UniProtKB/TrEMBL annotation, chain A:
Transmembrane segments: 39-56, 92-114, 134-167, 218-238, 250-271
Organism annotation: Pseudolysinimonas kribbensis
Taxonomic path: Bacteria, Bacillati, Actinomycetota, Actinomycetes, Micrococcales
Region span, Disordered: 1-25
Family, per entry: Belongs to the binding-protein-dependent transport system permease family.
Matching Gene3D superfamilies: MetI-like (1.10.3720.10)
Bilayer topology: Multi-pass membrane protein
Ranges for domain ABC transmembrane type-1: 88-272
UniProt name for this protein: Amino acid ABC transporter permease
Keyword presence, Cell cycle: no
UniProtKB/TrEMBL annotation, chain B:
Example GO molecular function: ATP binding
Keyword Membrane attributed: no
Protein name as catalogued: Nitrate ABC transporter ATP-binding protein
Classification via SMART domains: AAA
Species for this entry: Pseudolysinimonas kribbensis
Amino acid sequence: MALTNDAPGRAPRPDLSPVQDPEAPAEPSALRTFLRRRWTLPILSVVVFLIVWQIVGMNLNPILLATPGSVAVALGELVVNGQLGFAFLRAMGALGAGFGIAAVVGIGVGLLMGRSIVAYRVINPYVSFFQATPLIALTPLVVIWAGIGFPAEVVITFLLAVWTVIINTSEGTRNTPPILLDMASVYHAKESSVVRNVALPHAVPYIFAGLRIALGKALIGVIIGEMSISLQGLGGLIVDFGDSFQTAKLLAAIITSSIVGVVGTIIIEILRRYIAPWSQTVDRGKL
Amino acid sequence: MSIATATPAIQVTGVTKTFSRPVERSARSRRRGAQSATEAITTGGDVFTALQDIDLSVGKGEFVSLVGASGCGKTTLLRMMSGLIARDSGEIRIDGRLVNGVPSKVGFVFQEPALLPWRSVHDNLAFALEYKQLPPDEREAVIEDKLKLTNLLEFRNSYPHQLSGGMQQRAGLARALATDPEVLFMDEPLSALDAFTRRRLQQEIASIIEASGATCVLVTHDVDEAVFFSDRIVVMGARPGRVTELIDVPFPRPRTQVELLGNPEAAQIRDRVLELVLGLG
Ligand SMILES: Nc1ncnc2c1ncn2[C@@H]1O[C@H](COP(=O)(O)OP(=O)(O)O)[C@@H](O)[C@H]1O
Ligand SMILES: [Mg+2]
């Protein structure tokens, strides 16, 4: 079908994901070998890594480096005694609240900035400033305002994540093709309809690219928040195990915190497929 | 065919439009030295005169084409007539009423299909009808009618990227027709298509427009297309953008490509327009 002159006119949407897949197939005939390589190499890589780690770890002081085997045992122990499950849920809760509010506020503010040049000029200085500031330094101030505990950690998480969502949403909205906006004015679309049917759908791939980056920042907020404010949850476990030189348990807690991130990413991807199936980007093989 | 009714469908009187150029660009051109006397006059400071003192009257049901070198202000004039952008001075009336924003009797076919990529063909038409707030069954009837007219009924649930360029442009036309416009503006609607698709679509559009009785203003860079469609061809010149010549095309509509092909008078008109556009006349 792509061989006729009258071929589909609209190019696929650009890949907006921050990471590019380095090994795209060169030609279809190499597909078989490519597919085989695609799964065998990463798995082989991990297996070899774990074996080397195990061998090196067995010859080192276990305080310096725990072996994969001992980490697995520690992980099992912590799951069974319930410590890890509770910590995991607490982190998911802080992430869900902080990142969720950041997503809603970020998309709202971003849309406003994208549709109103006045709002853009008023708000943009703050966005640029906070995006460039290491916001984790605000932790003491947040504690003064919100007290020691879960709310302060949610605020930190929110503060770390929201700017990226704002920037991506407003850029995506501002990039709406002028011809679509002209079309909307020809058909007398109200501003609410322009936002809902034109600007927001156009911004969706930008928004989700922003959400993925913001999720990483939010997770940093969650863990550092727990480490420096309440000493509970995953951050608390990490500090405890680190201070008491329980390296295997420490690594188990760290691995659990990356699982929080993976779960978050999967939820975002499921949402994207559900809300905006047309926004399929080239990186769909990644999950 | 100059139709002398009481109120013309479109009346343009003494319309001028200037754009302010980015400072950086005009500073550079000043350093380079103005390239011609007219440029020195019309590029006064940072202000660029895109259109100067345009007068044009289009009768009800008339088909008028705007032709002229690239950059002479055809798109700008079309967008002002349709109310998409404001004029600096002068008057534009559609059906006797001063244009201020897009009038509700106006349809517009863009150079690109301008379809919402996240909506099916059917839903793209529905978007155009939203402001009319029709009862659902009436709305569906209109959509079905226009999709039938443009041979897109079986693609009603397709998304724009699943359609060929010609079909996308047809969907854009179906959408423009859905609001039953009395005045239809088209900005190079077929310029992105290959020659065969373009010919076929010209014929289809001609018969659709004939049936609707709409007043049409078409921007095109294809002189044959202008001759095929128009009652009158408006030749425009650049720097500043202005109307240089009005040329009647006295053949009865609807026409066919074939009957114009062997017509010596049509060939003469085409050559005359080409000469004028290329600045040889
Ligand atoms: N929004 C704008 N800002 C500045 N200059 C513009 C703008 N729109 C058009 N122009 C200028 O006005 C002139 C006429 O443009 P246009 O109407 O698009 O020409 P045409 O459609 O005949 O090719 C061009 O020189 C173009 O650069
Ligand atoms: Mg143009």
